[in-house]
Structures are given as C-alpha cells and as structure tokens.
Amino acid sequence: MDVTRPSCALLVLLVLYISNLTTCMNTKINFREKEKQILDQILGPGRYDARIRPSGINGTGEGPTLVRVNLYLRSISKIDDYKMEYSVQLTFREQWLDERLKFNNLGGRLKYLTLTEANRVWMPDLFFSNEKEGHFHNIIMPNVYIRIFPNGNVLYSIRISLTLSCPMNLKLYPLDKQTCSLRMASYGWTTDDLVFLWKEGDPVQVVKNLHLPRFTLEKFLTDYCNSKTNTGEYSCLKVDLLFKREFSYYLIQIYIPCCMLVIVSWVSFWLDQGAVPARVSLGVTTLLTMATQSSGINASLPPVSYTKAIDVWTGVCLTFVFGALLEFALVNYASRSDMHRENMKKTRREMEAAASMDAASDLLDTDSNTTFAMKPLMRGGVVDSKMRQCEIHMTPPRKNCCRLWMSKFPTRSKRIDVISRITFPLVFALFNLAYWSTYLFRDEDEEK
C-alpha cells in the first residue's frame, strides 16, 4: 500500500501537466499586449534616458555613435532663379544602434516595435545647413515613425518639405546646368561623439515619374562635407543634384521672337526713302518692343555683376534694331543731300545756258561779218576733229563688278539702302554662327 500511493500521486501530476500544456498551446498569444510589456520594460521610468547618446562602435563606450542616412526624393516643386532656391519634398531616414533597446523577439514572431513619439528615444541632432524654410506633414496623422528592432537597431523615418538655397552661376543662362546641394550636419555633437554615414547601397532614391518645370535632373552625387569651427569638427553629408535647363521653352519664348523683331526691322530697307512716316514708325515700334522684351527677361533674373548669355543675345538684337533706325536717318540725310546737289546742278546748267545765249546774242549784235563769225566755228571744227582722234586711241577705263553694280543706283540714299539689305542679314548670320558655336559646343569644365 505504501508503494501504490506515491505511484498514483505521480500519475495525477503527470495528467495535470499534460492538460495544462495542451491548454497553453491552444491559447493564442496577444502580441499587442506583449509589445506593451516590452515597451514598458525598455522605456519605462528609470530604465531609459533619452538624453544620453548610445554607446560607440560594437557597444563599447568609446568611439562615436554611427548614424546611417538615406533619402527618398518624392518631388521637386520649383527651382527659382531669382531667389536662387529650390523646393523639395523627401522622406528622410536615419538608422543607428542603441543596445539599451534590445528585447526578446519571441522566437522571431515580433519583428520590430513601432513608435510615433520621437522624444521617447535618443535622436541625432541633425539639421539642414542650407535650409531656408521647412515643415513637417501632419495630415491625416503626423508622417513619422520610429522602429525598434530586437537587436537594438533604431530606424527613424519622416516626410518633410524643404526650401533650400542653391547658389547659381548664370553666365550661360539659359544654356546652363546648375548644381544644387542638400547638406545635413550635426549641430551639437562633434565627430568624437557622432558621425553621419551614407547607407551602403543606394543611399539616395528618386521617384520614377519626377517632373520638373523647365529643368531635367541629370544625375546626383553623394559626398561628405565635414566642417571645422572653433568648437570642433562636425560630421556633414551632402547630395549634389545636377539640373539641366530645358532650352525649348526659351527658344520659343525668347530667341525666335527676338529674331523675328530683328528681321521685321529690316523691312524698312525695302520701303521707299520718301515713306518717312512708315519707316520711322516701323523702326521705333520694333525698338520699343525689343527693349520691352529685354527688360521682361531681366525682371525674372537676379541682378548679377557678370554678363549672361541671354544678355549678349538681347543686346546684339537691340543693337541691330537700333542700327536699322539709324540707317534710315542716314538715308534721309543722304536723300536731302542728293536733292540739294541736283538742285545746284540744275541751277548751274540754267546759268550756263543763259550765259551762252547772252554771248551768242552779243556776237550777232556787234558784228555781221560772216568771215569773222565763221572763224570760231572753224576752230571748233578743228578741235572737235582732234578730240575724236584722241578718243579713238584712248582705251575706256575698266569698272569692277561692285562699281558696275552700284552704278545702277545713281543716288547715295539708294545705295545705302541696297548695301544695308546685304550687310545687316550677313552680319546677323555671322553673329548667330559665333553665338551658338560658343554656347552650345562648350566643354563641361568651362561651365564650372
């Protein structure tokens, strides 16, 4: 009997253990409750101090905390030439190791914990050094999260919109390329305590359907830009975005209209020199239109101390239009000079005719002797016969093509118009050849 009683007791305990194990296996684990318990355990009062930075490399107290950064560019809304700035919307991510936040992952069932309050854990003091304006997105909820992984890794992600300064070199505008930077640096922690690194493998991502007005994003480069000040050396990261300006917009809005205005100013060369109102109104109208367009172009650009490519173009076009107006002033002066010369020649011929008639009448009145009267005629006949013999032996002077062609236009005013019809288009064509060959076929080193 004494041996039987312990055996029965062991059997009862075995049955109870099996029944309890079966009940636990059939009961589902409440992971949300487990997350709460873990968060209370690692972030509870007196357990975690967000003011203290994580340990250094490999969990040691020595060395700086390493923070790896990556970006996702969602959109670039504008690039302002006048203010020299650009606006960008991006998803900013940071990742670092904080061994104080390690927890049990329940056999791989709990991948990470999620927080929405950044002040619960230690955060790197990163700021955007070339930022002008910026804001977070809170619709519908704040677009931010923190993920804590079982090994202590922390991932911080937030969506922000920034307006950043972008110093531009507009010497080649609008045939230029601009490099705009996005700089991120530590504000208070030196490189002895905090170091920012780019995430290995595709640290910067760009949305596929990125659309920019008047620009194209050609490429981007990541680099480091650590800065030294009186208080120490601070870690810094930068992204250089290379933008190429779309030329088709400026070709349609600026270059073609300017060419048309210059060509219209040449119409005055084909108008009659006596059409003074038509030629003056045409010259003044094209000059004022060209000046208005030039000032409209400069109104959208910042006042800079150097000459831009568009300044060369508009300046030369304005010079051609002004030259066409001055050409009419020269034609008008030459026309009045030609008229004055013709009047002088006409008056001289009339005076010579009157003098010859007076001389002939005097001869007839003073002497009626035919022998005396015939002597001058005989002398004149001898002289005329000698002159004819000389003309036979003299060779006519040769005229070159230009003089022969210009002899078709007897007046100086007409010659000026004809020369302008050829000279103005030819010089403008040579200017276009020099302009486009200079600004289109240039080396990339000259742009910097």
Task: Provide key terms for this protein.
Neurotrans-gated_channel_TM, 8-stranded mixed sheet, Neur_channel, single chain
Can you describe this structure?
It comes from Euphydryas editha (Edith's checkerspot). The longest helix has 58 residues. The chain is rod-shaped. It is of the alpha+beta class and 448 residues long.
In short:
With 448 residues, the chain is an alpha+beta fold. Helices cover 44% and strands 23% of the residues. The longest helix is centred in the last third of the chain and has 58 residues, at 309-366.
Structural class, by secondary structure, is alpha+beta
Coarse morphology: rod-shaped
User: Over all CA atoms, what is the radius of gyration?
Assistant: 47 Å
**Percent in helix:** 40-55%
State the end-to-end distance: 104 Å
- What's the helix count? 9
- What does the average pLDDT come to? 82
Give the SSE order as H and E letters.
Answer: HHEEEEEEEEEEEEEEHHHHHHH
> Biggest β-sheet: count, sense, barrel?
8 strands, mixed
Poorly predicted sequence stretches spanning 5 or more consecutive residues: 21-27, 370-383
Number of distinct beta strands: 14
Percentage of β-strand residues: 15-25%
